[in-house]
Amino acid sequence: MIPVISIVGFSNSGKTTLIVKILKEIKLRGYRVAIIKHHHGDFDIDEKGKDSWHHSQAGADTVIVSSPNKFAMVSNLEEEKELDDLIKLIGDVDLIITEGYKKLNKPKIAVFRTELCEHDSILELENLIAVASDTYIKHKVPCFDLEDIEGLVNLIEKKFLKNK
């Protein structure tokens, strides 16, 4: 089973920025990684006017665009897919990183910024394996500076990738 780690935090805390930095370091170490981003609202990845957009507008429930070096699939849903169902769609990677999904039962790294966190509820989440913060936080899990990407990736590698 592919290990899954969720990067969680309040809005605008730097989750995406941290994921990008972690992703670059993990890739340098030779691992293959998938990202699942949770979005609370509607979104569209079909560019208006493109063939795939026309297919969707004409009523296709699923549209797949494929080329020699990548593919994309857009499916209309009646209800949101569960994270575990999305994970089943992914293969051929060593690690899945999610952005969000703080309420689900997956290992989590919390992003904590003092100016955005009026309370520390993000630090009390279940399955927390680390905190990435702009200040030192005494906690039962390791606390890393937001710029200590090597330290974070060392932890991820030790806990989830070294047995690969």
Automatic annotation (TrEMBL):
SUPFAM superfamilies: P-loop containing nucleoside triphosphate hydrolases (SSF52540). InterPro entries: MGD_biosynthesis_adapter (IPR052539), MobB_dom (IPR004435), P-loop_NTPase (IPR027417). GO terms for molecular function: GTP binding. NCBIfam families: mobB. It comes from Gottschalkia purinilytica. Residues 4-134 form the Molybdopterin-guanine dinucleotide biosynthesis protein B (MobB) domain. It holds the Pfam family MobB. One of its GO terms (biological process) is Mo-molybdopterin cofactor biosynthetic process. This is Molybdopterin-guanine dinucleotide biosynthesis adapter protein MobB.
